[in-house]
Amino acid sequence: MQPKQKSLTHFRILFLALLFLVPAATQAQLKYLQEVKDMPPHPRILLLQGEEQQIKANIAADPAWAKMHQSIMVECDKMVALPELERIQEGRRLLAVSREALRRVFFLSYAYRMSGQDKYFQKAEKEMLAISAFSDWNPSHFLDVAEMTMAISIGYDWLYGKLSVSSRETIKDAILGKGIDPSLNWRYNGFLRSTNNWNQVCNAGMSYGALAVWEEMPEFARTIIDRAVETIRISMAQYAPDGAYPEGYGYWGYGTSFNVMFLSAIEKVLKTDYDLSELPGFMKTAGYLENMTGPTKVCYNYADCGAGGGLNPAMFWFASKSGDASLLWEERGYLESDRSKTRDRLLPAIMVWGSGIHTADIQPPKETVWVGHGVTPVALMRSSWTDPNAIFLGFKAGTASSSHAHMDAGSFVMEADGIRWAMDFGMQDYHSLESKGVDLWNSAQNSQRWQVYRYNNFVHNTLTVDGQLHNVKGRSDIQSWSANPAFMNAISDISGIFKGQLAGCVRGAAIVDKQYVVVRDELKALDKETIVRWTLLTSAEAKITGKNTIELKKNGKKLKIEVAEPAKVTMKTWPTTPAHDYDAPNPGTILVGFEVKVPANTSTALLVKLVPQNAGKTSAKIPELKDWPK
Predict the structure, then answer these.
(1) pTM of the predicted model as reported, rounded to 2 decimal places
(2) pLDDT tens-place string over residues 361-391
(3) Those residues with Cβ within 8 angstroms of residue 627's Cβ, 6 or more apart along the chain or in another chain
């Protein structure tokens, strides 16, 4: 950048700061950072100069950490040979490039700080200069800007002492002009009012930019961080009261991880997180994430979530801060596995947050039931943490009107004998739908979103009444639950999702004697005959074996689905072939279940047993929901 251009960029930043922010930037009006005067020298984001020694000591003492470090270094060696990133946008998003930028710069900066090898610095510098030369970072989809800003802010800070004056100026101008500057514009800063992951990711990215360039514009930087401390509380309120994350497992890995990146960074330099980590439910959310994975190592992938599970570096921050290493039982397995983890762009942070944790000290949790309320209530149960053949049952309530939700209130997943018998499709790739003109983000009752095959109630493990969609505004909670080992259970009144379809409906799900699962529905018809469909989605082979039974087979294992009540049902299977060309195919899956006619103004119960092949006695009478243990 030429001197004249550079000065114009600085003038524009200063002008915008005066226009939009100076009233809030005065010492009197700053809400949180009034007393903050100085910053530690570079590097100061996440890891101060000299703190590499603790990481190196942990690597030397623990083979799991040595393996993780080595995998990062090997990946960096591969990155050195790659061409620099280009500004290639896919549809409305530049996000794939932003995420790869964060992965490369974070990894390479870590490798340089840990090894001092110049090849890592040189490659990181080239990537940052290439990114800085982009025309913009796509502010219309501000997640792209946030991740790009975080990427080169880490590199700028961690490599500051090695960067030339020219490189510093170029990168700093990009952080200010292409990163923070657009966040002052009302057209792009809707994240400041958002309750979802956008708030967390974007506030984190902007704060990293402010921390990186603090010396240049301390008042301005102070204001950006103060703004983040105030507005990130909006999204963090969603963890209340118990830590259940409204958007599910996948978006927990996004929103919560960037929230932790923000908290960890400000606490490092300011010695406080302004009590943000003490907000109701936030520290409890680590329990939610841990319990969301079954013995098969597959997560409960409700809402817009992929089907897998994996290492979450943020869990090591929670474990370190809380002093509870049992939160890492699932993470320990991922950490020690041979499965590649180097696609995770935040992976180097695990070396920072885990530097005081010895993997040998990680023991399984004591509790086998976890329940969270809030926007998307969920109950998670298992017969054991250590038996790979244990029974796992995830059961959810909630509403289709929340962020990234599907029509799946009352749905569940179930595992036994190392097989996920009852599954969830999870999300379909957004671009595959958007590129075909699908109006994906309108959640109104009759919107196109609910025509997407994977998103409506017809293919979830719940009930459908007279072939109708669930009521998008209906809400449900976990009414009661019990951790009694003989009858672990949870109950939800899901009547709201059947408004105008049923007079009432309550569903309970339980693990009985650690042997099998029961799902009981108690419902009442309106003043007309009603057809109720009960469905379970599976990747197993399915065969109707009797008037009230279906047998599932997979990998040499079997599971029996038995309808104990009512006596007269029609057992069925349905293909999972979608109706529209924009829907993703679903090979190797099938819907199983039954239909039942419920006479007008009649109450009835549906009781289904899911029985693994080696289950013991399963003839015990299952009581009405009002008599289930509380």
Answers:
(1) 0.94
(2) 999 999 999 999 999 999 999 999 999 999 9
(3) none
Question: Of 397, 395, 409, 537, nearest to 469 (Cα)?
Answer: 409
Length in residues, the chain: 630
Taking residue 203's Cβ as centre, other Cβ atoms within 10 Å add up to: 29
Q: How far apart are CA 556 and CA 539, in angstroms?
A: 13
Return the structure tokens found at 245: 């994350």
Q: Break the chain down into helix, strand, coil percent, rounded to 5.
A: 40, 20, 40
Cα 66 to the chain's mean position, in Å? 27
Kindly give the pairing relationship between strand 570-575 and strand 557-565.
unpaired
Q: What angle do CA 253, 259, 263 make, to 5 degrees?
A: 140
The number of beta carbons lying within 10 Å of the beta carbon of residue 489 is 26
The DSSP element (H or E) to which 519 belongs, if any, is strand 516-525
| Cβ atoms of residues 195 and 235 within 8 Å | yes
Cα distance between residue 594 and residue 571, in whole Å = 4
CA angle 237, 238, 241 (to 5 degrees): 80
How do residues 516-546 score in pLDDT, each as one tens digit?
999 999 999 999 999 999 999 999 999 999 9
- The encoded tokens of residue 85 equal 């990133």
Token pair 């309970």: residue: 508
Element (H, E) at 394: strand 392-396
